[in-house]
Amino acid sequence: MPRKPRIAIVGAGIGGLTAAVALHRRDIDVEVFEQSAKISEIGAGVALTPNAVKAYRALGLEDEIGAIGFESDYQVVRNWNDGGVISRVPRKGAYTREFGAPYLTMHRADLVDVLHRQLPEKVFHLGARCTAVETSDQGARARFADGTEIEADVIVGADGIHSAVRRSLFGAEAPRFTGCACWRGLVPLDAFPPGVVSRDGTMYMGPRSHVIYYLVRGGQLVNFVAHIESNAWTGESWTQECDRTEVLETYAAWHEPLLRLLGSAERYYKWALYDREPLDHWSEGRATLLGDSAHAMLPYIGQGACMAIEDGYILAAAIAQMPGELSEALAHYQRLRLPRTRRAVLSARARGEEMHLSSRWGQLKRNVKMALHHHFGGDKTGIQLGWFYNYDVAADARLTAAA
Questions:
Q1: How many CB atoms lie within 10 A of CB 400?
Q2: Is 125 helix (H, G, I), strand (E, B) or coil?
Q3: Spatial separation of the C-alpha atoms in residues 82 and 312, rounded to whole Å
Q4: Backbone angles phi, psi at 228, to 5 degrees
Q5: Cα(287)–Cα(285) distance, rounded to whole angstroms?
Q6: pLDDT at residue 191 above 70?
């Protein structure tokens, strides 16, 4: 029987932590190296679509994820200027019946905390900024900014869009600026009279822009994100604060209840959106990538975190099934993941173009098509994402074992 492999994960975001939990649950030695001084996340929301919830179900975490999540009754799409309803799709209960799991929204920090609690503290190495990785068919080595080095049977780059692991494996390559920027904020729901801000997941679509909002913290906070096509801002930091007047001036002509929400946050954050061209492979020797390191994508179909969660589950399953053939395990992992994540990257780009139509005729055709599809079409998501939501990562892993 082969010895248990040692896996080193660089990055303690949602994808890296999910992979660590999945490996730990399979009794595989895993360590996590995180450049920050603590395990934490930014103050923002994240959506877990049914495919991601099913992955956590397979890890025995569905109850804990459900406890921190919020499931809205409907997903509502509105017109930007008058708030007219373009579509109103049932979500609560309906998604579980159709796709096998709910659609949950939650605070990123709450999700990271759940994942963190599943692992012993000895797993974590904090303040460890990876600068380079070397790899071969027998193992891999990572170097860190403080001069230390570690060796592992497999090194996993879960260190985000500017991944040091990716750079070591495939060379320097700047991410692609998409020409869009975002503002975000959090507002207590009880700051508004009843009915002003809907408890449903809501999206407003307008010319070259859209705004989404949904509830987190069990329905206590409203998380909003306003997207606009603009080359005026290219900063990537999610923690760059900005002034309220930027937001209110940009959306001054939009629906009045939305403006009340956008004007009510205590702090506003602004960042530019980047993605990357899909790679044709993620692994070199005994090192591989997951999440944004492998397939950074636009947020327009809500699959960035969900794809990273799926990556983590499949990677752990492949390693557990082939502990004595780790190079083949990594090759099999990327064979399973490449087509699906490529489709997610390209679908997110296309979805952004559709949401930001600037001509009135184009908007009218899109809205009519969407409304008709919601009434008579077969995709219960209303925005043609059933292919993503139907996926069951645990079933895919079982088929892998059978093969």
A1: 17
A2: strand
A3: 42
A4: -145, 140
A5: 6
A6: yes
Q: Quick one: how far is CA 90 from the chain centroid?
A: 23
Among 382, 307, 350, which Cα is nearest to 46's? 307
Contact present, 269 and 183 (Cβ < 8 Å): yes
Active-site residue flag, 214: yes
Give the angle 357-363-366 at the CA atoms, nearest 5°: 105
DSSP state letter for 355 = H
Nearest to 15 by CA among 393, 381, 399: 393
Taking the C-alpha atoms of residue 209 and residue 314, their distance in angstroms, rounded to an integer, is: 35
Q: At a CB cut-off of 8 Å and minimum separation 6, what does 47 contact?
A: 103, 104, 105, 201, 214, 302, 305, 306
- Give which of 87, 103, 107 is closest to 202, Cα–Cα: 87
The per-residue pLDDT for 234 is 59
d(CA 344, CA 394): 19
Instruction: Name every residue whose Cβ is closer than 8 Å to that of residue 357 and which is 6 or more positions away in sequence.
Output: 207, 363, 366
**Residue of 74, 204, 214, 251 marked active site:** 214
Confidence at residue 208, expressed as pLDDT on a 0 to 100 scale: 87
Contacts of 147 (CB under 8 A, 6+ apart): none
Residue 329: in which H helix or E strand, if any?
helix 326-355
Which of 146, 145, 166 has its CA nearest to residue 155?
A: 166
Provide the CATH topology of domain 6-174+276-402: FAD/NAD(P)-binding domain (3.50.50)
Q: Which residues contact 190 (CB under 8 A, 6 or more apart)?
A: 220
pTM, entire model: 0.92
In contact, 320 and 19? CB cutoff 8 Å: no
Contact (Cβ atoms closer than 8 angstroms) between residue 15 and residue 311: yes
CA–CA dist 228, 273 (Å, integer): 10
Indicate the domain borders of the chain. 6-174+276-402
- Nearest residue to 228 via CA among 206, 249, 243: 206
Phi, psi of 360, deg, nearest 5:
-65, -35
- What are the tens digits of pLDDT across the range 259-275? 999 999 999 999 888 88
Q: Which two tokens stand for residue 198?
A: 């809907």
